[in-house]
Amino acid sequence: MDPVEFFGTKAGKVWEALSNGEKTINQICEVTGLTRREVAMGLGWLAREGKISIRKPGRHHVFRLL
User: Fold this and answer.
1) Is the entire prediction scored with pTM above 0.90?
2) What is the DSSP letter of 47?
3) Per-residue pLDDT tens for 11-20?
4) How far apart are CA 22 and CA 1, in angstroms?
5) Structurally, how many domains does the chain consist of?
6) Which residues contact 7 (CB under 8 A, 6 or more apart)?
7) In the 8-state DSSP scheme, what is residue 50?
8) Are 57 and 24 in contact (CB under 8 A)?
9) Given a cut of 90, is residue 1 above it in pLDDT?
10) Residue 46, exposed/middle/buried by CB under 10 A (0-12, 13-18, 19+)?
11) What is the DSSP string of 1-24?
12) pLDDT tens digits, 23-61
């Protein structure tokens, strides 16, 4: 399998989830049906492209699109 396709599809699903507002990893998992590991892959891709921001208002990290 092509790595760009493999990681890119996960990033696309995470992007779609975040387009409806900021979310935690668990919330992204619920919305997308991806595993925590797959969400992390997608977040990593989007972070590398400079497309998300991260904050930690409490116990959990919250991600949003820039």
Assistant:
1) yes
2) H
3) 999 999 999 9
4) 31
5) 1
6) 41, 42, 44, 45
7) T
8) no
9) no
10) buried
11) --HHHHHHHHHHHHHHHHTTS-B-
12) 999 999 999 999 999 999 999 999 999 999 999 999 999
